[in-house]
Amino acid sequence: MTHQDPDCIFCRIVEGSIPADIIYRNNHVLAFRDIAPAAPHHALIIPLRHIVSLSDLTAEDEEVAGHILLAAAPVADILGIRQSGYRMVFNSGADAIQSVMHIHGHVIGGRSMGWPPFPGEAVVHGQ
Ligand code: AMP
């Protein structure tokens, strides 16, 4: 597999050297259950190719970015939450607490959710 980072835990899941509870796969993306679920149902959709974050997507990634979104509904179906509703979240960078530097969409559901999702005190950045 090209465009992989040997130090990236999600690239290692893609290549099969680290186990994961894989629930969906096609030629572009892989989805597996989150090891520390934040909701009754929680899966991650990742591109097979190593891309760090939303902020690192380029025009070259247009097709794979589309495939990440297109996987949401089938993954929600597999989790049994397509009808009840779900949220897809991309944490990007420090303020969003991105902890794995391989872009991933969290698909969470199985309970009602609040909005806006900002518990705790705010540290305001940006313009
Ligand atoms: P983020 O904070 O948006 O970078 O989310 C990273 C997510 O990856 C967290 O929800 C972790 O629980 C999850 N995670 C980390 N390592 C693994 C793993 N080996 N298998 C499944 N999920 C993982």
UniProtKB/TrEMBL annotation:
Q: Which GO terms describe its molecular function?
A: catalytic activity
InterPro entries, per this entry?
Answer: Histidine_triad_HIT (IPR001310), HIT-like (IPR011146), HIT-like_sf (IPR036265)
Q: Per its UniProt record, what Pfam families does this chain match?
A: HIT
- By its UniProt entry, which SUPFAM superfamilies does this protein fall under? HIT-like
PROSITE patterns for the chain: HIT_2
Query: Which Gene3D superfamilies does this entry report, sorted A to Z?
Result: HIT-like (3.30.428.10)
Q: Name the catalytic site residues.
A: H104 (tele-amp-histidine intermediate)
Motif Histidine triad motif boundaries: 102-106
- Domain HIT intervals: 9-118
**Protein name as catalogued:** HIT domain-containing protein
